[in-house]
Automatic annotation (TrEMBL):
One BP term from GO: guanine metabolic process
GO molecular function, one term: zinc ion binding
UniProt-listed Pfam families: Amidohydro_1 (PF01979)
Protein name per its UniProtKB record: Amidohydrolase-related domain-containing protein
Cofactor(s) needed: Zn(2+)
All residue ranges annotated as the Amidohydrolase-related domain in the record: 2-74
Gene Ontology CC, one term: cytosol
InterPro entries per the UniProt record, alphabetical: Amidohydro-rel, Metal_Hydrolase, Metallo-dep_hydrolases
Family matches, as Gene3D superfamilies: Metal-dependent hydrolases
Record key words, sorted: Hydrolase, Metal-binding, Zinc
Length: 83
């Protein structure tokens, strides 16, 4: 089975993938399943791309693939959560 973890807020309350992964972890715990961080990260990236059969275009940082991400440098970015 192909599976991914994602959110368009239609099924959740946040755009934050970290919060979505945290909620997936909690749901797993209720079902006596321990979702490992590496497994959750996979399902949110390449696993999601494979679930949509788009792994040749998205899902990781390989050259030539599309990606949408932000890089934060805590040394120059004022951010209380980064401290």
């Amino acid at each position: 089975m192909r599976m991914g973890i994602g959110s368009d807020v239609g099924a959740g309350t946040t755009f934050s993938m970290l919060r979505t992964l945290g909620e997936a972890y909690k749901v797993g715990q209720l079902q006596s399943y321990r979702l490992r961080a590496s497994e959750a990260f996979y399902h949110a990236t390449l696993g999601g791309a494979r679930a949509l059969r788009l792994e040749e275009k998205i899902g990781n940082f390989q050259p030539g693939k599309e990606a949408d991400f932000v890089v934060i440098d805590p040394a120059v970015t004022r951010c209380s959560a980064c401290a």
